[in-house]
Amino acid sequence: MIANSHVRAWRDLANVVAIVDVIPEKARGFAEGNKIDRWYTSVNEALEKCEFDIVDVCTPTFTHCEIAVEAMNNGKHVLCEKPIALTLEDADKMIKASEKNKVKFMVAHCLRFWNEYRIVKESIDRGEIGEPRIARAYRYISFPLWGGWQREMEKSGGVLIDMGIHDLDYLRWIIGEVKEVYANGGILKSKGTDAHDYLHVLLKFEGEAIAFVESSWIHPKSHPFTYGLEVVGERGMLKFSRETSEVVQLWTEGGGETISPLKRDAISLEIEHFLNCIESGEEPLVTGLEARKSLEVALAAIRSVEEGRPVRLPLNGGSI
Amino acid sequence: MMNDPLKIGIVSFAHMHAWSYLRALSEIEEGELSAIFEEDPERRRALESRFPDIAIYSDLREMLAREKLDAVIITSENARHISHAREAMLRGLHIMVEKPITTRLEDADEILSLAEREDLIVQTAFPMRYHDATVIVRDLIERGSIGEILVITATNHGRYPGGWFGVKELSGGGAMMDHTVHTADLMRWYTGDEVKKVYAVRGRNIRENLEVDDIGLISLTFNGGVIGSIDCSWSRPSTYPIWGDVWLLVIGTKGCIYVDAFASRVESVIEGDRLRWKYSGADADKVMIRDFIRCVEEGRRPRADGFDGRQALEITLAAYKSVEGGGVVQLPLGK
Q1: Is the CB of A210 less than 8 angstroms away from the CB of B215?
Q2: What is the CATH number of domain B129-283+314-330?
Q3: I need a labelling partner for B45 at 20 to 30 A (CA). Which of A255, A277, A296, B279 fits?
Q4: Looking at domain B6-126+285-304, which of 3.40.50.10090, 3.30.110.70, 3.30.465.10, 3.40.50.720 is its CATH number?
Q5: Helix (H, G, I), strand (E, B), or coil: what is residue B310?
Q6: For B141-151, how does the pLDDT look when each residue is reduced to its tens digit (9 = 90+)?
Q7: Interface residue of A131, A232, A234 to substitute, partner B, most B CBs within 10 Å
């Protein structure tokens, strides 16, 4: 699903040469819809038959590692959708592949390119609110039904690894490393799934800051996707939410929607950044290692739910 | 025919809510302010000049002995609630106690047993049970609008209130002591259930030289499985446009409810001053005081009684125990 916005952004910045999807009709439809000449049903096939520099991995999380490693072993730079993987072992394989093949590898934690989140980061970096002491970050939506794979814990990691990791990664970026987590929640509402649909996480950071992260897939279907952030430091606070960001509202007989007025969205800025890194040789903002650390926090939170106690980082052994 | 108004004394203006209760009393006919106990000379002078017709005492026993009171409102420093409540109850007076009811569980239990023995009404001042916005939420839940409750997420942010709130001996603790009980009580009220497990974190203070905690986060698990959380932090800067918030998200099997109880506002900006939000919502204090008086007259159990105050305090104390290295704390707390 994220592929739509990625392709839209890529087309403005580079030449998209091929689409890969295991389902032939999907690959073909997507390619034709986006006026892309070639489509394939496996990465291998694309690697064999086509020339390109970059692979953008927008597949379900459980397939990230295999595809990314194969692409990197063939000398391709890889932009991988978040989360990096479902286990630390897989994340390590991906990091090693990027080092061994000397290719650029970035994980698409798009909040780091999202306007409001960037403004908060820049304000903190300028010292405007002093050292962050407490933060609150949330995202709320109904259970994602579009992929099917989100229902399976082994494929998506559940609500925190699939969605909450955005906030975990962002808070690490603005505050620092996490020392300990406690999480509460689990499968509260959804039927026919073994994936967590609600978690809240209490985080303790190295610098003695604390944070609350809440991730819900148990909101009703009619509820719009909602997110927000609040950070309070020694000298002040920064706060925004979807309601204060998406200031254009459209209402029709069928319902309403809110629209962000920004011409360049986070995905486009993220892809441009990745291209710039490939050209300049600089390290991307979200390296494999960065993404791995964010995954580790999420895995610790899941372990905390399962064991009913706070969990300290780093983890020993990192599977769900 | 209406009864004579109930004669009410206010015990201390240490807590700023006393001013709002006094205003509420002046606006209703069922009760009247008869006497004030105030030890602090500065506050006494302020009261004397504003209420020249009301007897103001610097000795609580003297006030209780001389005045023919029906009830007192106790708005002293948190840690002094117990001694003031004891004095009043031993004189046969009904009490409304500012939250938190006390700072120690054994003190709350003493109030409960005195109430039982002397047959007195004890109301804990939980105005959120009388606030139109949070009452609507309760009605929606009762009507089944969102199905069974799964999660309640709450914030009760505030500015730093200053004064004795920052003195542990008088307050019993900082933000966690001040701001856990309101939303903990609403959660108990909405779910009709008690908390089973408490885990909390406290970070490095926003205000470095404060001796009490000014930030905290609490995770709760109720007996029936409902998951709750409270951000009790005094995390609003002194220039914030209003004192703080009471915000809740209640998620159920069929829907969810948001309430931002003090967001009703008129925005006011005067040259040379910061932005201020003039609160335009419901007057919960007035409804609460009126109900207290009716409960006393009719011998009825208040919407939030002493036991409710005690249970909310227990959650707070469990949160403190958790941050002091207690990990996940099981309720009820042992002696």
Answers
A1: yes
A2: 3.30.360.10
A3: B279
A4: 3.40.50.720
A5: helix
A6: 999 999 999 99
A7: A232
